[in-house]
Target: NADH-quinone oxidoreductase subunit H
Amino acid sequence: MAGSGRLATELAPGGTYRADFSDTPWWLTLVKALLVFVYLMLSVVVVIWFERRVVGFLQQRPGPNRFGPGGVFQTLADGFKLVWKETFTPAKADTFMYNLAPIIAGSTAFIGFAIIPLAGEVNLFGHRTPLQLTDLPVAVLLVLAAGSIAAYGFVLAGWSSGSTYPLLGGLRSTAQVISYEIAMGLSLVAVFLYAGSMSTSQIVAKQASLWFVIPAIFSFIVYVICMFGETNRLPFDLAEGEGEIVGGYHTEYSGMKFGMFFLGEYVNMFTVSALATTLFLGGWQAPPPLTLINDGMLNHGWWGLLWFTLKLWGFMFFFVWVRGTLPRTRYDHFMAFGWKLLIPLTLVWVMAVAFVRAAMLGHLGEASVSAFGRSFYVSLLIIIGVFLLGAVVATWLIESRNEARREAAQPERPSEIDPFAGGHPVPPLPGQTLREPTHASHRSVTAGSAAGRSSANDHEEDHRG
Model:
């Protein structure tokens, strides 16, 4: 996918290209920060409408279709409603933390985009500058750190609300983030080993001839799974399961305080999708066939923003499609999947990538590896990745079969129950019907009630005496 001229030299295998900000004055950095903010806010407005329309189509209902053509202005109406909606603070809440939590959740979501390259070098107000705010030798770690800070917003919201259900949601969020950030971080180690850098611009440059989704296919699959766990999206939205804990950590929030959590969730979706695009799908670079047009013209300048946006929205459609397709998982299944499957197999994968890369480079360096040798090692990594994916599927099938056997071994639930059996009235479970209580059980309950009333009367008479 190499282009021509200066870009082809910078993106050559073994190169050390990094974004050049030497012609970027401070005021232009502020302008780019404003552009990134507007890009994200407009994307959030569009994706909320897009999600509601797509999920409505999947569920055979129209979705928003009243305000504007196709309901396109419905998101703006909802935003105004949140702004003017009454807000309140629960009586038992920790006021400072209660107000701070939505600010943390909403604002930290934007930090990750500071190091995401939206395109290559572009001409902006007479200056040649990368369409990226900044770059660091450890830029990817900044995104992971910002995501970890955002988790504090959920935890503090649940704790500071002074209510049971938000507290449960906050605890779930803590366990969920800790579990799946480990697997996500391990999945990215393979990319760091293959690129030899944590700089986002350099990782994109290293994918000039081969996107990392091919040699690091297992890392890509694990990262996509962890994307849902990190953003609290179905089927992994256990921290806000409406059917179990009402609304989770934001149960006691309303108005724009709730809107900040809502905004943070969608911006986080764009952040993890942008990171996946950067690390696995070549970033802003054009797909392989298009790089051959006019000597790579479509791989330069503002064209990169188009390819980056298309890849980004491919992930957003996947988010929406999964939400409209899969049910919420059980919490114990979710945690067991992360700790017993993803983390151990990702550790095996990282060691395999390290050994393969060491064998590929040896002591001669990457530039000395022939095209045949590079293809061989890439094929070896693909085989290892497919084998580990097969291990994940096989383990899941075996565990599902064992659980089905355990459930089948349990005694069958009777279709009829005696509500007074055991001395206490018990309501029927789903699928059960009540039958007439036996005289013995009914008499025992009646006698117990009479004894209770007699004891209460005796206590009352003693008190009067």
